[in-house]
Here is the input.
Amino acid sequence: MRRITLLSLLLVCTIAYVPSTKANTGDPDAKEIIRKSDEKLKGKTNTSTLKMTIVRPSWQREMIMKSWAKGDEYSLILVTSPARDKGTAFLKREQEMWNWQPTIDRSIKMPPSMMSQSWMGSDFTNDDLVKQSSIVVDYNHKLLGKEIIEGRECYKLELIPLEDAAVVWGKILIWIDTQEYMQMKTEFYDEDFYLVNTMLGKEVKELGGKLLPSILEVIPADEEGHKTIIEYMSLDFGSEIKDSFFSIQNMKRVR
Amino acid sequence: MKTLILIAWRNIWRNKRRTLITAASVLFAVFLSSFMVSIQTGAWDKMVDNMVTYYFGYAQVHQDGYWEDRTLDNSFSLSAAKEQLPSELQENVGLVPRIESFALASTGDLTMGVMVVGTEPEAENAMTKLAERVVQGSYFEPNESSAILAEGVAEKLKLSVGDTLILISQGYRGTNAAGKYVIKGITRFGSPDLNKQMVFLPLQEAQYFYRAESLITSLAIDVDRNEAEPTVRALKANLQEDQYEVMDWEELLPALVEAKEMDAAGNYIILIVLYVIIGFGIFGTVLMMTKERQYEFGVMTAIGMSRSRLALITWMEIVFLGMIGAIAGILVSIPLVYYFHLNPIDMGAMQQGMDDAYEKFGMEPIIPAAFDLKIFFGNAFTIFIITTLLSIYPIINIFRLKPVEAMRA
Amino acid sequence: MIFKIAWRNIWRSRTRSLVVIGAIIIGVWGVIFLVSFSTGMIKSYIDNAIRNEISHIQIHQPEFLEDREVKYPLEQGPAIANTVSDMPGVEAVAMRTLSNAMISTSNGARGIVARGIDPTAEAKLTLLNEKVIEGEYLSEKGRNPILISKTLADKMGVKLRSKVVLTLQDLEGNVINGAFRIVGLYETSNSGADETNVYLRANNLSDLVNQKELVHEVAIYLNDLNLVDTTVTQLKQAFPGTTVQGYAEISPEINLFNSQIKVSSTIFTVIVMLALIFGIINTMLMAVLERLRELGMLMSIGMNKVRVFMMIVLETLLLGLIAAPLGLLFGYTTVQSLGESGIDLSNWSEGMRQFGISEVIYPYLENQLYTQLALSVLFTAILASIYPALKAIRLNPVEAIRSL
Here is the structure.
């Protein structure tokens, strides 16, 4: 089971919301890049429709879902396709995660034992959706330089977790677009600095009026042929969503 | 040579009482050791049978790699596997197909992790007697979509027969699995492990729940212990090795095998002590016999019989005695052991509280003696060898004999 | 008078006497060894499970036993532990903080049970420190040390000094994370339990859950199995509102195996006793047979039958009195020396060697049983002499003399 903070997913969306930073003439220091983007995340909302494709050596499966998010505290994901899963919803409220199953007319709180399972069979785990570690607080940051990713100039940053941080990675490398502050590529390493996961941003295009990678790929390093692809079909930023939208009641009603 | 044998044979009947006593001690030795081994074997056969038919069965077929990584993604198609099964297996033995995985069971605010097993109700009952464990409600009827849960699960979720059980899990290939089921029955398992996690669904219902239509994770083969080995061999020969794994009960229940091996080692030591005591008993009679015949030996050597001939005759006498005793021992053991095979020893009657300990596990508190001709012949042979070895004493005695003194004794 | 004759008779026929003495010695020794061996076997089965896993007694909050959730602590825990440690027969007491948790590494995550322990108390109770096969046992050193099994480490792809993250719920149900360093890897004979149990310091776990001291379980190890029932009763009275369980209740399997071994060893002892009786009867029969002439002579010169009978029985008694103490001594020495060095069962079983199991049995016998067993063998021997003695006095003296 591979893990990638889904937080990073949300990051991508919200960082892109940042009205193109009037870039400083000089390069900001590493911590600054991360801190600024992380701060800009807070309190912002987004609504999206996305397609998740799970790719395995012998089969692949597609799901379409709608997602609402507010900061990194709240998010709600509703599955709209395939038919048998239609209406299934996941609600994240702070560190809790709830699941609504229309077929049995029930919502349940996901217990820790289920959190380690992969999320809907993808390369994400349920736990990734609620992980509370922060890429600002829990890591030491270092700017390694600039590299071109997908034809865009990016800062290459190295994140090393603090000794006591509840973080499983030994190291993270992030490539962040120098202009749009998009995460174009992230590599997650274990404690021996072996690559575990790679996340790629692809096909940058305008979504909801912003420039964004429209496709995200998560590739576990040591499982050949495994991949999870998320494609944004529509994305909308900044619409007002009340906290009460992210309620168990609403999880059942939302369409 | 022939004459020697004849003399030896006559000699042993010259003193009938002595012969009977010696032969009897061999007889008892054969009987007691056979009985002991039969009980030891029988007790374990019973224990193994109890444990094996509790859930796993004597043999199981899985998708290759399932045992290492027990997930639904390692399931296989029953119909495809059936094509590869030896035809005689399909006709003669029961197949218990199951789909097994973990799920979250819940009611109200209560949730707990359970193991949801989809199974063919009739075949399951034929092998594990699941229906007999139902303490509330009743067992599955054909074409039903209800659930049967273990008592511990029902207690924790505060559910009883007629209530609805909610199951949520991850199905085949990580799909979303959710379902609700009316509780048809509640079963009691002696093993606390099973009692607090088992939920049974009819096979098709579970396959739908896990989104694994027509797939199973394990195929248990319902055979008797005696047929287990050839069945496993036949399965291994027929099923494609890179596709399926065939496991026998010893691989499925290594802890039981360990306990059995440990007990067997202990029993082996006990058996050795028994042989020592038996051997000494027989030695006592042989020694007495030698003492008693000092005069006779003295006379024989005095009248010119060669010592080696005399020793040979005496040795043959003891061999005859051993043979008579061993054969009689077998003849006596067979009906007696068979009696205890048919009428097992009731442990409940022997020790207080035994009934309880066994009943908790849904087992009978009995030890049937194993009835296996190999046991009788094996022990008869061992005792016979011990007896022949003991004849070294009179032989040594004969060679050391001083005829005059011996005759005077 | 008879006594003198009997005594002389014994030494007149030395070989015969030595055989009877030998039979009784071997009998006493065999029975002592056997009973001590099967007692040792039961003890080792039970002791292993009790020592390593369940302890003799466990005390929990009743709700905790149902849900195993961190929110049901045993409030009286420290008080109970205090009281218990002063009770007679208590060898070790340990308090534990227990929580279901998820252990994650970059390689994945698994559900486990986090056991917060007092390293010293736990070492005394379950000898956990002896099961560490790599690295070190938990100590007060280090900030967040954790001890996991070799099995789990292999499955999670971690090793000594690796960092792992524990995710668990606090008392309010909030999810919390903590980072721990693996200081040691352990291995017990129960691989299933190894996969689920990880050990950390109780204070580390309590801190995570935001409480000063949080106790869920008090486990007690007694120095005598027979004290369990009375201690359980006492504790039940002293601490109402808690659930006090003895080992048989915690693990009925132990009880089952225990019963099975007990019954089968009783059966085996009976069989061995029978073998012994027949051995002695046969030897005595032969001994009497050999003396037919002598006995016939005695009777024909006017010794009455009761006296002949008495003489034979007395002879056996005397032989027994010589043999039984020797057998006792022999048995006692065997049990004492094997009780110390143990018998490694794997030397006796091909299968065990194959599985790589080594189980050492320490024969054990309670002191009063020695004399009881010796006396019962002696009694058996005397009983065994009665039949041949009866046979002897039924002889027609004339025939008896002629029979040679």
